[in-house]
Design brief:
The complex is a heterodimer of chains A (441) and B (254). Chain A is of the alpha/beta class and 441 residues long. Chain A has one domain. In chain A, strands 1, 4, 5, 7, 9, 11, 13, 15, 17 and 19 form a ten-stranded mixed β-sheet that branches. A ten-stranded mixed β-sheet of chain A has the order 3-2-6-8-10-12-14-16-18-20, with helices on one face. In chain A, strand 2 and strand 3 form a beta hairpin. Chain A is globular and about 70 Å long. The model of chain A has no long low-confidence stretch (mean pLDDT 94). Chain B is built from nine helices and twelve strands. In chain B, the strands form three sheets. A six-stranded mixed β-sheet of chain B has the order 6-9-10-3-11-12, sandwiched between helices. Chain B has a four-stranded antiparallel β-sheet with strand order 2-1-4-5. The C terminus of chain B is likely disordered. Classes of the chains: A alpha/beta (441), B alpha/beta (254). Chains A and B meet through helix 8 and helix 9 of A and helix 2, strand 7, helix 3 and strand 8 of B. Chain A: This is Fe-S cluster assembly protein SufD. Chain A: Belongs to the iron-sulfur cluster assembly SufBD family. Chain A: InterPro entries: Fe-S_cluster_assembly_SufBD, SUF_FeS_clus_asmbl_SufBD_core, SUF_FeS_clus_asmbl_SufBD_sf, SUF_FeS_clus_asmbl_SufD, SufBD_N.
Amino acid sequence: MASPFVEALAAHATETLARLPGAGLAWLDAARREQLEAFVRDGLPGARNEAWKYTALRALERRAFLAGDADAASRAVDIEALRLPGVDGPRLVFVHGVFRADLSSLDALPEGLSLRPLSQALVEDAEPLRFFLSRGGEASADAFARLNAAFATDGMVLCVAPGAQIDAPVHLLQVGVPADDDLAWHARHIVELGEGASLTLVEHHAGVGAHRHLGTQVSDVVLHARSKLAWIGLQECADEALLIRRDRLRLDADAQLRLHALELGGGLARRELDAELRGEGARLDTRGAFVPRGRQHLDTRLDIRHVAKNTASDALWRGVADQRGRGVFHGAITVAEGADGTDAALSNKNLLLSPHAEIDTQPVLEIYADEVMAAHGATVGQLDERSLFYLRSRGIPVDAARALLTQAFCRAALDDLDHEALREYLGQRLVARLPGSGTDA
Amino acid sequence: MLKIENLHARVEGKDILKGLSLDIGAGEVHAIMGPNGAGKSTLGNVLSGRDGYEVTEGSVTFMGQDLLALEPEERAAAGVFLAFQYPVEIPGVNNTYFLRAAYNAQRKARGEAELDSMEFLKIVREKLKIMKLSPDLLNRAVNEGFSGGEKKRNEIFQMALLEPKLAILDETDSGLDIDALKQVAEGVNAQRDPQRSFLLITHYQRLLDYIEPDYVHVLADGRIVESGDKELAKKLEAHGYAWVADHGEPAGAA
C-alpha cells in the first residue's frame, strides 16, 4: 500500500536511525521511532488535505529518494562562491543536511554566542534539546515534519546569552550539489535568544549544479523577553530541488522579530511559518517575495497567532509568477481571546507575467478579542498598462519597462531591510530572476 | 515636421477621429481646441502610440517617417513627446533612475553615447532650475505623492530634459491654478525653439494667454472644422463652441 516515496524512505530505517547523532538516548530513539511510524502509517498529505490544496504531491508520491548522503562529508563545495556581502562572521555549513566543519567558520565566536551543530550538541549535552526534539507530534505535523523528526541528521543549535548583542550576522548555509541519486536530507535547527539579546541570522539555501534532491527543515526559534532577531532568508535551491520548511516561532514579551525572505529557487519549495506572539508587546514583521518561473512551484504559508495583549504583526509579501510558474500564499492571522490591543496587518500582492502563470492567495483573519486593529488584503493582477505606456512614451523599450515595473513591485519586500549590503545583494538576486534581466533563460 | 492626413481612429469600436488633417512645421506652435468628446485626447494618444487606439484610415508622417509604424519608445527616440493629461504614479520606481533610463534609452536608440550618472545629474540639475522644481523630487518615486501642479510641472521638466522635436501637451492646463499654469507656461516658453514644434491640446483659451500659438484649430466630431490664428481662440472664448458648429462647415447637421 505504501507509496514509492514512503517505501524508499522507510527502507533500512532501523539502520538509518541507529546511525543518527544522539542514537541510544532513550527519549530521542522513542521520539524518532514514533514519528517514523506515523510517517509510514499516514504517508503524504492527500489532495483533500486543506493545507495542501494548492500544492499537489501526487508526482512526489511516485518518486523514490535515497535516505541521507553517505558522501556528504567529502562533496566538493566552493565556499568562496557562496559568501554573501557584508556577512563574514560565524558560519555554519551543511551539505545535504550534513555538517561540514571544513567549510564552516566557528572560531572566535563573539562572547554570548553559542553556535554548534546539532550532532555535537547531542553528544555534549542533549538534555536542553529534549523539549524541542521530543515534540513534533503536534496536531499540524505532516509527513515532512515527521520525516524530519525521525531522520534529521544534523542542524544548527544557536543560543544567544541574555543581554548579548551579537553584531556580526550568523551565516547558516545549506548547500545541495549534484549526486548519482536523488537524495533526501533533513535539517533540524534550534535558535534561542535570551532576554534582551539581539542577533542577525542569514538563512541561506544554495543549489550548486542541477539536482532533484528533497530537503526538509524544521526550525524552532524562541525569542525571550525583549530580544531582537533580524532574520534574512535567501532561498536559492536548484530549480528542480524540493525544499519543505517549517519554522516555529515563539515570541515572549516585547520580543521583536523581523524576517526578510526571498524565495527564488526550488522546483517545489514550501515554507510554513507558524508564529506565536505569546508575550505582551511582542512584534513580528515579515516581508518576502516569491518569484516562480519555468515550472517552479513556490508555496508560502504564514500562521500568525496573537495570544498576548498589545502584540503586533505586519506581513508584506509579493509574488511574481512568470512562464508556467506557480505561486501559493496562505496568510492566516488569529487573534486569540484576551489578546486585546492587537495590531495585525497582512498584505499579499501578486503579479502574473504570463498567461500560463498562476498564483493562489488566501488571506485568513480570525479575531476573538476586543479592540483589535486588523487589516489584510490580497490581490493578483498584471502589470499596469498605463504605467507601462508612460515609461515607453519616454523612450524606455517595452522589455526594460516591464522589468522596471516588476522590480518596483517587488522592492517593497526589501525596502526596510537595515543591512545595506544584504539589501543590495538580495535586490540583485531578485532582479536576476525577473524577466528582462538578461539572465533569464 | 508632422503631417497628418485624413486620420481616422477608433477606440473600443467607436469612431472618434473622422478624417483629421493637420500640418505642423518646424518651430510652430499649434493649439487644438474643442469641446469634450471631440477627440482631442485621442489625437494625442494616437500620435504617441498608445494601445487600444486603432487607426482605420489615413497617415501620419513625422520627419519623413511613418509615425504609426513605430512603437511608442521608437516614437520617443524619434523626438515625439507627450505630456500626459493624467501623469501616472509609479511607486517603487525612483525618479532619477527612470529619467536616466529614458534619457539613455533614447540616446542609445539614436546611436549616441549613454551618459554616466554624474554627467546625467549635471544636466538634470540645470533643467530642474528652469522648471523651479525642488531637487528632492529626484529622490522620490515617479509622480508618487506629487500634487496636481507638481505632476504637470514634472511633465514639462521631462520634456526639457528629453528635448523632443515635437511636444504634445494634452490638457496640461487642466486642474491647475493660475500660478501653476504660469509656471508651466514659462517652462514651455523657455523651450520654444525654431527646431521644436508644439501641439497644445486644450479645452480652454486660458492656456493660450500664456503660451502664444501660431495657429489655432477647432476640433469637433473628429475633424478640424476651423483653423486660424490666435484670434480664433478669443472668438471661441467669447462665443463658445456652439458658434463653430453654426459658423463652420460641415461640422454637424446644420
